Amino acid sequence: MRTPIIAGNWKLHMNPEQTVEFVKAVSAKLPESSKVESLICAPAVDLDALRKAAEGTNLHVGAENAYFEEEGAFTGETSPKVLKEMGIQYCIIGHSERRGYFHETDEDINKKAKALFANGVTPIICCGESLETREANKQEEWVVSQIKAALKDLSAEQVSSLVIAYEPIWAIGTGKTASSDQAEEMCKTIRETVKDLYNEETAENVRIQYGGSVKPANVKELMAKPNIDGGLVGGASLDPESYLALVNYQD
Ligand SMILES: O=C(CO)COP(=O)(O)O
Prior knowledge:
Blueprint: E1 5-9, H1 16-26, E2 37-42, H2 47-54, E3 59-63, H3 80-86, E4 90-93, H4 96-101, H5 106-118, E5 122-127, H6 131-135, H7 139-151, H8 156-161, E6 163-166, H9 180-197, H10 200-205, E7 207-211, H11 219-223, E8 230-233, H12 240-247
Parallel strand pairs: 1-2, 1-8, 2-3, 3-4, 4-5, 5-6, 6-7, 7-8
Helix pairs in contact: 1-2, 1-12, 5-7, 7-9
1,3-dihydroxyacetonephosphate (13P) binds near residues 172, 214, 232 and 236.
């Protein structure tokens, strides 16, 4: 059985003090990790505070990005090796904002996935189509091609352990959620792609999140779908009450 994973992606919000306040506000009310994994992915400058504040709680900690090199002359980048040393468990890669504003390619994302695995950090690999691609009804081939490129040369064991986040760009921060049927349809396609590339067991193990205007009001319906194992949540993860409503969607 796949453990559901609800992750906040704070993007460029929150400072270390606010991070500690947030953890204080949520820590006592988080579900058991065996029931739902509660994760916050925070800006690199907040990770030390987040990891320390989350110690001994059911809150898991992730980064929003990392580079594919561990060290060297790469000004401004975040090392996957240092993430590991800091005790960071997850790292988002290939978010559409990174692909769009920072020109990250499928090849970069594949290299980042390998670098994270080399350092024992679990990647959350994002994929998703633009409105233009959906209107042209090309969303499936677009997402399948992103997945194939991101997973290139990864082992079945690695793919079993990672997380894929389907985030249609037209649903991010727009208040326009994909319908639960649209989200399920693509998450199912992603799982079938993993089965074609690897095997049934790997496809059954890989966790697939939906992201794009997930809110307390729609999380339950999304999570009821058989191929949706979690949410990657931007705006609604910044407020403690809203975050708690998301991670406790089973109550
Ligand atoms: O991009 C997202 C999470 O990675 C989704 O953001 P919103 O939940 O704000 O739409």
